[in-house]
Specification:
This protein is of the alpha+beta class. The chain has ten helices and ten strands. The protein has three domains: about 140 residues, Acyl-CoA dehydrogenase/oxidase, N-terminal domain (Butyryl-Coa Dehydrogenase, subunit A, domain 1, Orthogonal Bundle); about 100 residues, Beta Barrel (Butyryl-CoA Dehydrogenase, subunit A, domain 2), CATH 2.40.110; about 160 residues, Up-down Bundle (Butyryl-CoA Dehydrogenase, subunit A, domain 3). The strands form three sheets. It has a four-stranded mixed sheet. Bound molecules: coenzyme a persulfide.
Length: about 400
């Protein structure tokens, strides 16, 4: 079934309350706890037909916008709920949405990631032109960094932007671009000084309808979501499209990823919590050898391992988000103290993403194994979680990149 999920609307057979005991940790304020509680109630009521990932994603964006959840993707000056992007809110929201629907989480996260470079590095007029539209769902955002030969190795990108009298001309090909094909605008990173490696990259805001931009090549993936190759052929953009400093694109991309990597960890936590919930429910109802699956010690041991994998990842995730919100925000990042905190945060976000996504993969695999043959049946929640989690270990920096960031940081 090309481009379609194999199952229909979300049906929550069991009311989920699996995160109730997690957000009372000192990392969170009552405001965060309320966000989580409200979102759980909201998510339970949604029924979205996810058979077509593009339509479903647009549906999720409009629902998330209508009920105010996209306010957490932009800052207060542009309709956002917090003065600055709040990492703990992003984590809680992704942790909650991903328990219900990976696509709902995707729709939320991509509005934040795609507009993140504008929030961090945009001029006042760029922010005015784009961010309120992101918040209301009228503008769908996309972050276009990767290329066929430049995934982990960002500096190897081959897309170019050449300055002309009245703007820039972009050429090349970006790929694995989330929201590709449905985005209204792309933040595209291009080489502007190829001799300078990572120091020769700049960012541009490019409207999807710009002549020379072709985003019609949809990519099919194991957990369907809007993903495309974006081709740029003599794509002319005005001088006002330059985002952030000339040749400052690599740092802008890294600063954006720094924020959203901790939120990927949140999404992985949500998927793992859902898998544990499915496993526990299944173990209590399945009979074998004249007792419940839950009565075997091997089952209890496995459930215990799953819980510890989740909670250890949760601590790293919540700590990273707390560190940014309460210790890093407002600091002068040029001061030695600010720089050292920034490095600490970058490493904390990298550890959170790596450990939470790897642990979630293990938890989901264990939960599927516990389901036996039922676990691989299309239409089972555990089967879709098994496909949904896989990309999280790769996108926004593969596990190995996160490990490298932490190791390099130790030696710095
Ligand atoms: N914030 C701000 N600046 C950063 C930074 C961060 N988190 N990380 C690196 N920088 C700066 C460095 O300080 C350095 O600055 P100077 O030029 O002033 O010295 C510059 O960027 C280059 O840094 P570094 O030498 O560490 O970069 P590398 O080329 O070694 O790349 C990795 C480092 C591999 C970690 C980086 O390319 C990366 O994260 N790759 C994965 C990309 C990714 O996530 N892709 C997925 C696409 S989005 S779905």
């Amino acid at each position: 079934m090309v481009g379609e999920k194999y199952f229909g609307p979300i049906i929550l057979e069991t009311p989920l309350d699996v995160t109730a005991d997690c957000w009372d940790l000192p990392f969170f304020s009552p405001t965060h706890q309320q966000i989580g509680a409200r979102l759980k109630d909201w998510a339970r009521e949604q029924e979205v037909d996810e058979r077509n990932d593009r339509f479903a994603c647009l549906d999720w964006v409009s629902r998330l916008a209508k009920d105010g959840w996209l306010q957490y993707c932009v800052s207060a000056a542009h309709g956002g709920a917090f003065e600055h992007l709040d990492s703990r809110a992003l984590v809680i929201i992704r942790e909650t949405l991903s328990q219900y629907s990976a696509l709902a989480d995707f729709a939320f996260a991509m509005q934040g990631l795609g507009s993140g470079p504008i929030t961090l590095g945009g001029s006042a007029s760029q922010q005015n032109d784009y961010l309120s539209g992101v918040c209301t769902g009228h503008k769908i955002a996309a972050f276009a960094l990767s290329e066929e030969q430049a995934g982990s190795d960002v500096a190897a990108m081959a897309c170019t932007a050449v300055r002309q009298a009245d703007g820039f001309v972009l050429n090349g090909e970006k790929t694995w671009i989330s929201n590709g094909g449905i985005a209204n605008f792309y933040v595209i990173f291009c080489k502007t000084d190829p001799a300078l490696g990572s120091r020769g990259i700049s960012a541009f805001i490019v409207d999807a309808k710009t002549p020379g931009l072709d985003d019609t090549t949809h990519l099919q993936v194991m957990a369907p979501h809007p993903l495309a190759t974006v081709k740029l052929k003599d794509c002319k953009v005005p001088a006002s499209a330059l985002l952030g400093p000339w040749n400052g694109g690599f740092k802008l991309a890294m600063q954006t990823l720094d924020i959203f990597r901790a939120s990927v960890a949140g999404a992985a936590l949500g998927m793992a919590r859902r898998a544990l919930h499915e496993a526990t429910t299944h173990a209590k109802s399945r009979s074998m050898f004249k007792q419940r699956l839950a009565d075997f010690q091997i089952t209890q041991v496995k459930l215990g391992q799953m819980k510890a994998l989740i909670e250890s990842a949760a601590l790293l995730t919540y700590q990273a988000a707390w560190l940014r919100d309460t210790q890093l925000m407002g600091r002068d990042l040029k001061s030695p103290e600010g720089q050292s905190l920034h490095q600490r945060y970058t490493q904390a976000a990298a550890m959170a993403k790596w450990v939470a996504t790897e642990n979630a993969q293990q938890v989901i695999d264990m939960a599927l194994q516990m389901h036996g043959g039922k676990g691989v049946l299309v239409g089972q929640k555990i089967e879709s979680l098994y496909r949904d989690i896989r990309a999280l270990r790769i996108y926004e920096g593969a596990t190995e990149v996160q490990q490298l960031i932490v190791g390099k940081g130790l030696l710095a």
